[in-house]
Amino acid sequence: SDARREAAEEVAAEAKEAAAVAEANFADLSDAVARREAEITSLKSSIASSGEASTRAASLETSLQQEKDARASVERKLAAAEAQLAEIRGSLAEADSARVTAARDAAAA
């Protein structure tokens, strides 16, 4: 009877120890799962941020190209205006020259 009791107490102690180990293992696994979930959440956030950054970069590249195109258009218009101005200056120089020649001719006559 005492031997049975001691054996039962020993089995109970072993079961209690095994339960404590199992609880510790469960707690470790729960912590590991929580860490993994946090890592996954962080990675998802990073991926989303990366996607947003990629979209923003593409938008900036498009805006930059539009600005370059607009600048090129303005440069073309400026070059055309400078060419017209050169023509006008040439015409004015010819008119001045003709006026001087006419004045000389009138004075000589």
Please give a structural write-up.
With 109 residues, this protein is an all-alpha fold. It has one helix and no strands. It has one helix at 2-108. The relative contact order is 0.03. The mean pLDDT is 92.
Topology:
Elements lengths: L1 H107 L1
Which terms summarize this structure?
single chain; mainly alpha; 109 residues
Structural class: mainly alpha
Total number of strands: 0
Global mean pLDDT: 92
Helical proportion? Answer: over 70%
Let me know the largest β-sheet.
none
The helix count comes to: 1
Gyration radius (Cα, Å) is: 46 Å
Question: What is the structure about, briefly put?
Answer:
By secondary structure, the chain is mainly alpha-helical. It has 1 helix and no strands.
